[in-house]
Specification:
alpha/beta; Rossmann fold; 2 domains; 6-stranded mixed sheet; 4-stranded parallel sheet; 11 helices; globular
Amino acid sequence: MRAAPSLLDPQPPSPLTEVADDRLERHGVRLLLKRDDLIHPDLPGNKFRKLRLNLAAAVAGGHDTLLTFGGAYSNHLRAVAAAGRLLGLRTVGVVRGEELAGRPLNSSLAVAAADGMRLDFLDRATYRRKAEPEVLAALLARHGRAYLLPEGGSNAAAAMGCADLGRELRGAADVVAVACGTGGTLAGLAAGLGPGPEAGADGGLVGGTPAGAVAIGFPVLRGGAFLAADVLRLQQEAFGGRRGSWRLDDRFHHGGFARTSPALEGFAADFARRHGLDPERVYVAKMLHGVMTLAAEGAFPPGTRVAAVITG
């Protein structure tokens, strides 16, 4: 008999640690690191939170296979593969880029394959149509009945799972910062935080002392402002409408998804020297760079507590 998803449960809440940083202190801002990267050894941070309810639904529905989608360096594919190994479920990863088939696997795909994931490489034109019925039917015909997870794992169940993150931070922060790839974590985080103040156009707080907090999402891909529509859609599907106070700041992609820049590398190396935490570059370093920049711009009133979610 397959193991129940409860075996994946972490020991919540994940740690919340304040760190001293003179760049923020000169503006009266306090920085707290929400160490969601420590929540589970194989499914860190938002990957665990987004998958938890989906895995429960898959097992409850009698599925023995998970089928999902991602790029060549997708952390989501690795997390689904690990979950399948832990739960005794088959996993299929549909990878963007037919040209990758037959080549040596990169480190991310190699880890997923080692955890038992079957990789199916699609040409990019077909991959863009991955949600269309005929494409899904062809995939299921090849791989059999499966529980479908979208790219990045962002669906209504994922948003509901990420609401726990917001609930853990209620009352502990005035602003919560998180990196965004598909918007699912931000959708749930903001809902879990509860009602908060308006978020001004510059990311600052508008109006008195909030009961809740503002969630700021930092897209890690170029042109990420489009994610606002996805976040709203996910909140509507999960919670029946817009929830919490949230906004996006799309200035910190540093060239696009999985890309970096000399400025980002220098910032991340300096952060590691100061705080003993080397932020990974795809998501976390970009978010932290955004927080530091907003503070320097005066977006946060003195006394603001900013919680930065370290997703891993």
